[in-house]
Amino acid sequence: MVERFDTIEPLRRLIGTHFRGRYEELHVLRKHLHREEGSKRVLKISGIGGSGKSALLGKLLLELEQSDERPSPWVYLDFDHPEVQPSNPARLIELIARRLGLLYVGHPSSRFFYEIESASAGDPMESFRLGLPRGAPPSELIQALDRVIRRLQMEPSLLIVFDTFEQAQMQGRAVTSQLTETIEQILSALPYAQIVLSGRAVIEAFPDSTRIELGDLDNESADSALEALGIKEQSFRARITRAIGTNPLSLTLAAAAIKSGQLTQDDVEVFIAGASGLEIQGRLYTRILGHISDGEVRRLAHPGLIVRRMTPGVIRNVLAKVCEINPDDAERLFERLPDHVALFEHDDAAPDEKGALRHRQDIREIMIQLMMRDPIWMDHLSEIHTKAIEHYQGRPYAITRAEELYHRLMRDDELEELDALWSQDLAASLGRSWLEPFPERARAWLALRLGRGDLRAPEELRHADWEFYALRETLSHLRAGETDRALSVLAQRSERVPGSPLVPLEVDVLRRLERPMEALAVCRAGLARAQSAEKLQSVLVLHLRAAEIGLDLMDNELLQHHAGQARRIANALQSPLDELRALQVLARGELMDPKLFGDSKQERLLDLERAFAQVQPEMLLQAPDIAERMVKSLRLFSKNVLMKIATTFGNHPDQTLIRADAFLLAELLTDVERKNGGVALLSNLAAAVGLSKTNPNSEEIASNTIRFSRLGDALTAVLDAYGDDDRILTNTANLFL
Questions:
Q1: N or C, which end of the chain has less CB nearby within 10 Å?
Q2: What class, spelled out in words, does domain 496-634 have in CATH?
Q3: Is the model's pLDDT at 378 over the cut of 70?
């Protein structure tokens, strides 16, 4: 029910008590909901930030929520939330089923929705109960959803709302195409389903659809909204709308400035005179900041909008001087920021950060554009971007690299500096800022990497940009199983920049085609370029590739030389993950042919296990391939290895290292129950997943453990208590892929 509250409450806050007008738009939405004559299957809502798109949707959905009768099935998914993954069809179906289960709590059908949720997440027990194969494709999961909806004892219907659609678009054409295909599957399998897509950008998919373009409110609705916001005098309301217009965000900001005493009847026209809509919103927001009683927060809020994220380190190292704040107070000041919900939202923290917040993106976009036009702020902008780059520079995490790259983009750094920082795992983070006013050159560079805009002919691209194009196209062909076509893309140009990611990729393609000698030649040429340019990380990667080729060719000298070089460089770079990779390739050789590759297998495996145990979990999370190889290729099923994987990955819903297999987990728990103290352990596991501690049932615990993503906790507890028992250890190992 907490999750249900978390879905509904933001909608309540959006519409507040002052939602007014939009009568025509609500009428179109209601017609769409009820599939009245002439309505299409898809309705698209677009409008600029602050025009009230989400509030309009919230008004409709709360009408459904507050219905006296059992509500018709509806689901709200916001792509601004990280759990809503547009590129993952099974995950979207899982979330749809979960939301419907919460909508019908207490109804017999809720259990079936939860079964579909678990089956979509990969639970084979729930798949079996639903008559689905393990790992059922999205089409079969949608058909199962159809069967449950038809059990609701009402005319079948389903409204699915996808909000903040631009966040999906910002992840590139491939992601948008995958999402479009998923929606088309839903529409095909569920003839009663209606879809709403809402976002700032034009949505090109589904041309045969109903469209709503949100603009400003009509004067009567704007007047009514201001009255609801606490502006009681009608003549004052009229002066406000004449001065600032009727944009919903402008009205809300104006009312807040007036109620806080920062804007009066006497100065409203003078204050607004000559300003554009964007400038009006910026001025109003600045007035609201003036009402913040905490002087340090007030000084931090406005120039602080130049940075996307707020952490104690950012306050201390980036903003303290320009905001006239004592750097020693950074920790205490950061602790006060979450209270200002109108300014900040929670954000993911990097492993070396104690916590993180982010500014509200709609406000940032307004203020950044205004600050970039203001000569007074130009020097401050450059200073803050430079200090932010220095703060994030050299830190290895995707979160911190994305921020360094963002500030370099805004500073319009040389493209070669941007090239050196880019990796594909930064795309989603940078995509969130696509609507910000990047310099023209930086925007063109970013557009190519986000898959936005029209791509010029590849032969006309700057070589570094061509390499990125080739990387994207090659990976796309490999995902489709088109290895020859992947190689043909790489063959378009022979030049490679030192440390180019195309070199190890070309090695991989040639190895797939069973052309190891050609792969070795490419690898050696790439090593020479990377070594001359002192690209040590690239040298390390290519030594590891060459060691793998040594395995392919059954060449012990080649394997030992390159694996040894990789270990040496990994130690120099203080990279325990890469040292593990080198140890792993050596161990695989000894397992393949002890006579050829050496017979120190037990010693090597013990070294490997010790090194694996010492890696920090946050680092291991970035390299699931290492953990997978420990159990899949090397068959290392010791108690310590399994506990390390369970504690690091087990509670992550999208992990693929441990089978989300309720049958196998139930068998393991049944074995545990027979052990001394086993019933007590099962009772604790039951309580942790919302079940009674009395008479714990292994199957129920297994099912809920997988449903609520507590697999890591359960396996860690079992291994900690009984990991020295051979049978328990073997049955636990069966869960690891």
A1: N
A2: mainly alpha
A3: no
